[in-house]
Write a structure and sequence with these properties.
Elements: E1 2-7, H1 11-21, E2 27-32, H2 35-45, E3 49-52, H3 61-70, E4 78-83, H4 88-97, E5 101-104, H5 109-119
Parallel strand pairs: 1-2, 1-3, 3-4, 4-5
Helix pairs in contact: 1-5, 2-3
């Protein structure tokens, strides 16, 4: 089973992702509501994939991504920014922080599942 960490402070996003992945036996979903919690969980659990919202309390998604990618322990983890911020400047900033991909809200459950499968090469 692959571990997927979702870091987002919006209940609706957490619920949608949980509902999308809950019945898929290939995944264990871990959740965090702020950047510090996301970083702590990622360091402890070493997930295969992390979805990061950009705007979160304590640490933003860019900071979490950068910290993950700079660490020898977590640098291999695939990171996708999951955000409503669709401007090119945000995409460029995510890329420079080390993000592997960028996925914008709102999204359909089908598109999310396809993204997870693509990122984990399970498609």
């Amino acid at each position: 089973m692959k571990k997927v960490l979702l870091a987002d402070d919006e209940d609706g996003v957490l619920a949608l992702v949980a509902a999308t992945l809950a019945n898929d036996e290939r995944y264990i979903l871990l959740t965090a509501r702020d950047g510090e919690e996301a970083l702590a969980i990622a360091r402890r659990e070493i997930p295969d994939l992390v979805f990061l919202d950009i705007i979160m309390p304590k640490l933003d998604g860019y900071q979490v991504c950068r910290a993950l990618k700079l660490s020898p322990t977590t640098g291999h983890i695939r990171v996708v920014m999951l955000t409503a911020m669709a401007q090119d400047v945000n995409r460029e900033r995510a890329q420079s922080a080390g993000a592997d991909d960028y996925f914008t809200k709102p999204f359909s459950p089908t598109a999310l599942l396809e993204k997870v499968n693509d990122m984990l090469e399970l498609g």
